[in-house]
User: Fold this.
Amino acid sequence: MKILIDIGHPAHVHYFRNFIKIMTDKNHEFFVTARDRSVIFKLLNYYNIDFISRGSGSKTFVGKIVYAFYSLFIIFRSALKFKPDIFISQGGVYTSPIAKLLNKASISTEDTENAAISHKISKLFGSYILSPTCFEKKISKKHLKYNSYQELFYLHPKYYAPNSEIYNYLNLDKGEKFVIIRFVDWNAHHDIGHNGISLGNKLKVVKKLSEYAKVFILSECELPNELIQFKINIPPERMHDALYYAELLYGESSTMASESACVGTPAIFIDNEGRGYTTEEEHKYGLVFNFKETLDDQEKSIQKAVSLLENINLKEEWHISNKKMISDKINPTEFLVWFIENYPKSIKIMTENLDFQLKFSKT
Assistant:
């Protein structure tokens, strides 16, 4: 089977890297297109995944439109040469229209309820959409749900083991307490109308949390001069080790909040829209705390962070909750391998018997 995968975000590299390795070992062929954004290329090179660039995009409205057509052209040209049997991507924005044009199957993964543009495109052009069961919408009749989180594509215990060498990268003594703060740039199409944490509260949360642990900031946006000294400087492939050993994650990234839940680290997530998976991780497992972007909620989130850091049994309690969550979920990579290898028969099987997915190992 020949499979074309498009990567538009660093997390997408992680979603598909184990799938690519397993399928490659089974003699399936891949062609990967990738956006030149953040650390995407560094991650692809680290995991030895060959790819071609579809450019870096633009922050202006007109630039975004031009870039969209450019990306479609790159993927179309690549598909004509590679002749894939199936297209796969998160959201399906660029792959599903090309697959439809070439009369090929396209599968998109999805976990963001407010990604309206992705939903419309994948609904109109895509073959099928896969999302976690906690996804709070039904996008179309071609929407199937599996009992797991996308972050378990790479943080499932079968694929991930923490490496304590991260303390050396952070210039910390082994066991020294630290927290990670994450700021985003709010430039995604589903981020329109969001402002995130105020500058005053960014300064405040760093000051407050510094009283309890070493603070490191991972930011997509430019940091003010007062916070530059806190900027984290580690290889991108080491970030999950940093999350594992951190006392707490505080910030605006739903993906990193869920990643923290998947490795047993408390997470505070600030976003007006929220996500179905962070909601479930809070209400069912107590691993994440969700707050809105209002100034009142920002203040409450800082107070919550402080109260968590004052708990001397914090990580022990979270690892217990994490084990329960892991035991409840299937291995999504094994599920995706089966789903793609058996497509389109897998559609009929899942439609007639949703519990079929339970055969994929939970531990």
Q: What stands out?
A: The chain has two domains: 2-148+330-359, 166-326. Residues 2-148+330-359 form a domain with the Rossmann fold fold (CATH 3.40.50.2000).
